[in-house]
Amino acid sequence: MVATPLVPVILCGGTGTRLWPLSRASYPKQYWALAGEHTLLQQTQERLAGITDLRPPLLICNEDHRFIVAEQMRQISVEPAGILLEPIGRNTAPAVAVAALQATARGEDPLLLVLAADHVIRDPATFRSTVEAGRAAAEAGRLVTFGIVPTAAETGYGYIEAAEALDPAAPVPIARFVEKPDRATAETFLASGRFTWNSGMFLFRASAVLAEMERLVPEVVSGCRSALNNDTADLDFLRLEREAFASCPSLAIDVAVMEKTQLGCVLPLQAGWSDVGSWGALWETSDQDANGNVLRGRVISEGARNCYLRSEHRLVVGLGVEDLVVVETDDAVLVAHRDRAQEVKKIVNQLQASKAPEGEAHRRIYRPWGHYDGIVEGPRWQVKKIQVKPGAALSLQMHHHRAEHWIVVRGTAIVEKDGQELLVGENQSTYIPLGAQHRLRNPGKIPLEMIEVQSGAYLGEDDIVRFQDNYGRSEKADLPAPAAIPR
Quick check: 345 pLDDT over 60? Predict the structure, then answer.
């Protein structure tokens, strides 16, 4: 019997604020390498290798992260079936509906394996075999969810109760979903043997989940269908029509479908899963040294025990401390007791309420052409370090209120200024006067690095007129960020 094709649907939304200061709105946790050399998004795709009749993935992400997603897939040599851009967050039910509609657009009816991009699974082989174990039920029209076999009476997860004894070889019917319980209730769940944690991972035929959504939440399907019918092709992306997608109610697929359907079933998964919901959870799932420490980056540990110590830039020293989380980034340092790591979200809320830049973005901001780092700023001036990928170019643009000095420190630049091109090498510089049309391009084989000094009466991001862009971007800024952004 020929297996039904399986299409991974990777949901890339979410900001992961409990992993601040590393994870922020401009660059959330799924795009960081937290549990190995590759990012969580890349690992989500890579662990699928070897699944029967696996097709290229559909990825659903925020518009602001589209180039990050595309670049991370390129790095692991994966060409997605599509990258769908949500104009606004609407939870997982509309995302699943869009994926099912897209997957069946050409008359096909594949299996959809719905996955979050920010989970850690330490045993990929067991994960793949569990997916295969759920395949027959999904092909027969059942809606399969993967329940994580509990390792403790956890109060931070929702639970799924099976209607009969759990079977690792085949899904069994679902009795009910239960919201996050108190400690005593969680302990009774653990003792019963019929409860699993709700992982938010699913396997079903595209037509089966669509039919249930049409029955249970028709307004979600109609809004998503309209958003797809009026989408806009944007390079390798499909941009969903904003008004139609915004009309969809914000619902999780669990609430919209799985808690109400008679077709739901649960398959236990025991593969070292974690949703990496806090620094404490990351400490638990990471390899620890003989003293229980997890050390990342430029870290020295002397007499430290049971700590998570991470440096992204500066040296971090843990001396005689216990049970701490210390995370250093370019503009912030977190020091927290491991037992209170979940409370980091409160700090992020405070930062966002005060409009502090550290609540949203790092000093390093990623763009399709490369990235830049804010170095220092003062009244009427600021300095940035820019890196442009080989063959990439910033947009052709001009500014009304600022001038720019560019100094090349590595590589070679072609600078276009008012229609004239200039080759600028290492230790050379050029000046872009106020009002000049200009563009920067890297014609070389190595990254171009340069220092930009901006000066003027106004350095805001909205002081830009874009005339042409290789990445299909409009004049509007792609992503809020402090001060002016080189484009």
Answer: yes
